[in-house]
Specification:
Layout (H helix, E strand, L loop, with lengths): L24 E6 L12 E8 L31 H15 L2 H11 L5 H11 L2 E10 L2 E8 L5 E8 L7 E8 L15 H18 L3 H17 L8 H16 L5 E4 L14 H13 L4 E7 L3 E6 L5 H14 L5 E5 L8 H9 L7 E7 L4 E6 L14 E5 L6 H11 L4 E4 L9 E5 L4 E6 L1 E4 L16 E2 L2 H18 L1
Parallel strand pairs: 9-10, 10-13, 13-14, 14-18
Antiparallel strand pairs: 1-2, 3-4, 4-5, 5-6, 7-16, 8-9, 11-12, 11-17, 15-16
Helix pairs in contact: 1-2, 2-3, 4-5, 5-6, 8-9, 9-10
Length: 490
Amino acid sequence: MSDSPMTRPLCFATDKQSRREHSLLPTLVNLVVYFVESEVQKEILAEVRVLSRCCLAFVLGLAAALALQAIPQVQPAIPDTPAGHTFKAWFEAFNSGDRALLDAYLHKYDPGKPVDHEMHFRGMTGGFDLLQIVKSEPLSLEFLVKGRSDGITAFGKLEVKDSDPAQVAGFALRAIPPGTKLSDLSFKIDAATRTRVIDGAIAQLNESYVFPETAKKMEDVVKAKQKKGDYDSITDGDAFAKMLTDNFQEVSHDKHLRVDFSPAPMPDHPPGPPDAEARARYRKDMEHTNCGFDKVEILSGNVGYLKFNFFADAEVCGPTAIAAMNFLANVDAIIFDLRENGGGDPKMVAFLSTYLFSEPTHLNDLWERKGDATHQYWTLPYVPGKRLDGKPAYVLTSKQTFSGAEEFSYNLKNLKRATIIGETTGGGAHPVSGHRIDDHFMIGVPFARAINPISKTNWEGTGVEPDVKVPAADAFATAQKLAAEKLVSK
């Protein structure tokens, strides 16, 4: 979930313990968000582009991209290093668009990363042209690429393990804002910056983190490490952001809590709702990604199938959701595929859930620390088209299912309205809001907690346990089988 000054619709980190996605689309920062990819609502501070994600999380993204100055037209040679070999393997497999080649690459170099993520990203970008090798070391590589279909220029950073083969330790892509110079991307931090970021992050946590006593514990741990000099040698912004994130999460165990870094200066958006230009930009980006809706079809046996990868802003993406549900209006059962869904807007969670109920139904509550306020989420009194109340429903989950997608699953499970099939989900139940620390750093602060009206608790740290536990890769076939059996028995 994500919720606050800065939120996003596709959330992520770059280390191996986090979910990683690539997304060159910007995100409007609006207050309640489960997934950092798009979730609750209050005015948020900014608009961000996210390219890589961690359980939530979200690697700071940048805005629309333009070509940089002095980029060579001929593809540069890829270095003959361990990092270069891994990059070349990814680059060739990714650009091929061949699922089997991408799957083979992932098994060898990046195990655990779903091939569907890469295929989806490949579809968005059309592949990449390599513009420049910015920096090369044996176990790391920085580079510039440009999307073949979207024309977006992005800065990438790959880190590999000292192993054979050199498996991926970290991979991130960031869209490059207009006017960015190559020198901006090599921004290094100094002692003053480290102190400013630590103080700024701690101040935001103490002011807004959902559990104030935990915020104080995080402050104590990080201040002790600072006093010992644990951060003194760090000059790389990404490394510093990751270390702070790790240190905060070691105390809080909160996967939504993240410090993020942007090598290029972030625009300083005034407080309050996004202006008309930013809103129009966001709408255009949502249209480009079809609001996260990836596939809708009617399977054999008149079973509906809907796959979407985040819960977008309902105000902007409501028509897309309506079109998808109306296409499935006459099915006898429905399968929601959330195996790659990182979360989003609780209002979209409620909107889509409404199609499964005939009566007003209490879905979830969000309690905010500030003001000690509780906000209830119910099904809506009206949604366009037929409802599927009474029709068997199945929700597919994976370890990558997170935040708002977990809320959708948890709500339906507790209401006994759907059968959850797949893997235990990621375990993030705290909406997060983004707060700008300075020109290069921001922090996502979980400011609220979900409280289910039935269980009186949530899925934070535990995830949502499926009713039918199978590997994520087998969840679809299992749901089809169960749906067929259910319909035959009627």
